[in-house]
Amino acid sequence: MERNQIIISPEKIREQYVYMDKVRALLGERMQKVHYAYVETFGCQQNEADSERIMGMLENMGYTPTQDAALSDIIIVNTCAVREHAELRALSITGQFKHLKEKKKSLIIGVCGCMVSQEHRKEDIKNKYPYINFLFGTSMNWKLPEILYNSMIKQKRQYHLDCGDIGNIAEDLPIRRESGFKAWVSVMYGCNNFCTYCVVPYVRGRERSRDPERILDEIRELAKDGYREITLLGQNVNSYGKDLEIDYDFADLLEDICKIDGDFIVRFMTSHPKDASRKLIDTMARSPKIAKAFHLPLQSGSDRILKEMNRHYDRETYLSLVGYMRERMPDIAITTDIIVGFPGETEEDFEQTLDMLETVGYDNIYSFIYSKRRGTKASLMEDQIPEEIKKERFARMIEKQSAISSGKNSVYLGSVQKVLVEGRSKTDPDKLTGRNEKNRLVHFVGDDSLIGKFANVRITEAETFSLSGELEK
Questions:
Q1: Which of 254, 268, 295, 409 falls between 20 and 30 A from 364, CA-CA?
Q2: Are 34 and 112 in a shared domain?
């Protein structure tokens, strides 16, 4: 794939700024003083990053961000397609916006993201949700100003799905970050792996890496603005650089990021075990700015199931990688993703997955009941597992991991942890909450002036999924 096929030209980006000006002018012709925009986001961190760019463009077009959909003059729903539950929830929320449009005929509603990059979902929305003004796929985010302007002028529904499997990289568009101290930075897009259960390559396209200097410039600005945590995003960050015309990989990028001045920590997600190199682990080990936390999706502990999933590694390879991580960083926190109930999974296969929980000793897991995804190979496989068996296995897994996580957390008792304070706890508003380097949730009593800063907290209580402590004076 030629690089010039996936980089949106500066001329085309400038065109979008022209459309932003046109939309702003249209809003200025209307009587109301403030025009509100609401973005509802489903799915992964990449979707959150996409929504920040969407809101940045909307703000540049004259809209004021709001958290109240009922106030809105435009609503955009950014959808996920990884699991059916996420799709159904997005459709349900979108359906609830119908009554808002009945009250305010001028309300504009758009739907974007991974879900609408599937042809059958586009048809569902086209036929069952006639009040939706426009749809656009993941590779069309950058064209939002043009899509919105045409929708306002032509008064006709707009459908802008993805341009084949090329995908794109669009630079120099406005971003409105949700946080003033934590930032998402996309380093690459798409995926080449085609795991048999996953729709990502079909809805986000093939792998394409951003230019390293573009990434470094963005992070320099974030560091200069006082951001304390920067998370690098990609469907498979370990593949970063493979499509570049220079000898430069993800470990090289991390090393250059760590040379940037500033008091910040670096995280990244998500890694594929087949591409996680010793060079990457060595870079983490010697770089104090990189959080000693690694998310390494396993998906299954059974070699047979891993092969059916098209994962390109086995238990031995995975455990060798974990072993080297712990050799270089003995206190590293390791988390993972696991799918329960993949087609053909036997009790023996599942027991091998349970065995991996103890063998690796994960700090936490993100486990999911297998969801059949239309268009994937796994959806056509025989021996689909009954729901009751999947749910029973899922419950057993959660019970086992809860005991492991609880034991991992107890090690922190009495220690002092450097915590990036994120805000008030949702479960106990009298306390602040934040995360330490290992991504452990920490609650403590403190003043709001600490939000967005690092604080030292002595741990006095360890629960299964969080820690509590006292602020060190």
A1: 254
A2: yes
Query: Which CATH number covers residue 43?
Result: 3.40.50.12160
Is residue 167 situated within a structural domain? no
| Shared-domain flag, residues 260 and 300 | yes
Work out the number of other CB atoms within 10 angstroms of the CB of residue 224. 11
Residue 397 and residue 435 in one domain:
no
CA dist., res. 38 & res. 72, Å (int)? 6
Q: Are residues 383 and 428 in the same domain?
A: no
332 and 377 in one domain? yes
| Residue 209 counted as domain residue | yes
The 10s digit of each residue's pLDDT in 140-177 is 999 999 999 999 998 788 888 765 445 689 999 999 99
Cα(291)–Cα(435) distance, rounded to whole angstroms?
Answer: 11
Q: What is the pTM of this model?
A: 0.94
Co-location of 209 and 150 in the same domain: no
User: pLDDT tens digit string along 49-93?
Assistant: 999 999 999 999 999 999 999 999 999 999 998 888 888 889 999
pLDDT of amino acid 162 = 65
pLDDT at 3 > cutoff 80: no
Domains in the chain, number:
3
Residue 168 lies in a domain: no
pLDDT tens track for 223-270: 999 999 999 999 999 999 999 989 999 999 999 999 999 999 999 999
Please give the distance of CA 17 from its chain centroid, rounded to a whole number: 27
Same domain, 52 and 199: no
Residues 199, 102, single domain; the answer is: no
pLDDT, averaged across the chain? 94
